[in-house]
Amino acid sequence: MSDETRPEGAARAAGAPGDGHGRTAAVIPAAGRGVRLGPGAPKALRTLGGTPMLIHAVRAMARSRAVSLVVVVAPSDGAAEVRNLLAEHALPERTDVLVVPGGETRQESVRLGLDALPAGYTSVLVHDAARPLVPVDTVDAVVEALREGAPAVVPALPLADTVKEVEPRPAGEPEPVVATPERSRLRAVQTPQGFDLDTLLRAHEKTAVNGEGATDDAGMVEKLGVTVLLVPGHEEAFKVTRPLDLVLAEAVLARRRATDAY
Ligand code: C5P
Q: Does the beta carbon of 228 sit less than 6 angstroms from any atom of ligand 1?
């Protein structure tokens, strides 16, 4: 691992799923403050099982043999800290890692990550640092669907809760319901979201950053009129957003360590 792209070499495994398909990189936006988790370090730098969430997320991408480069988008004032962190933790030799400073919104951060991709990459996975425990099978399922020709692929799960559309009111105030979408037609989407690189670049070019910017890359691609395909997600790919999610993540990690020498 280095913060510069290593020349291609023997370390890139022969027979890896990338062969004959163009290369796949992963961009990890990790520049968010994570205010919903409460006070403390930026979310990606909080630890799970003693290891920063970001390191878990980088390892989760690097575990896929299809991924030869991971671009980490760090908090704008934290790139040096993130480079140090990556240097302190073991990562697979065959995976290169680049660190770039992020932007004000997730959309800007992803764009900055895409801008850093060297020539030769035809597919990209965009993966939230806040989903540190996504299993490699989910990553590989996304890559596989891309390889089969889908321009945009997203892991997703059916919803447990019924969802209401509301007329939003300030936090804490009662909100009138506008509609109840049919639950069986709804899915909760996760990451990594996989894209044909040119398609995602086109989506970012066409979508202006307004307010908080887009929170979902696939949504930007849908606006181009391109079909986005869903593949089965995994319950362990949940997003660590609120304090209770940290408890759940610690429990998942402890179970993995007990059962699979993780
Ligand atoms: O805030 P939220 O949980 O939706 O953030 C999703 C991901 O986007 C997180 O991994 C976060 O670090 C990242 N992000 C970013 N740059 C921002 C805001 C969020 O990279 N300005």
A: no
Of the candidates 206, 245, 226, the residue with the CA atom closest to the CA atom of residue 154: 226
Q: How remote is the CA of residue 3 from the centroid of ligand 1, in Å?
A: 21
pTM over 0.85: yes
Residue 255 CA to ligand 1 centre (angstroms): 27
Beta bridge partners of 121: 23
Domains (range + CATH), the chain: 3-258 (3.90.550.10)
Sign of CA dihedral 126, 69, 147, 120: positive
**pLDDT at 221 exceeding the cut of 90:** yes
Residue whose CA is at the smallest distance from ligand 1 atom 5: 32
Among the residue ranges 34-43, 66-75, 103-112, the one predicted with the least confidence is: 34-43
Give the model confidence (pLDDT) of 61-75 as tens digits. 999 999 999 999 999
Cα 133–Cα 5–Cα 54 angle in degrees, nearest 5: 20
Q: Are 210 and 107 in contact (CB under 8 A)?
A: no
Phi-psi region of 26 (alpha: psi -120 to 50; beta: other; left: phi over 0): beta
In this prediction, residue 20 carries a pLDDT of 61
pLDDT digits (tens, 9 = 90+) for 222-242: 999 999 999 999 999 999 999
With a 6 Å cutoff on the Cβ, whether 42 touches ligand 1 is no
Instruction: Tell how far the Cα of 22 is from the centroid of ligand 1, in angstroms.
Output: 28
| Interatomic CA distance for residues 95 and 150, integer angstroms | 24
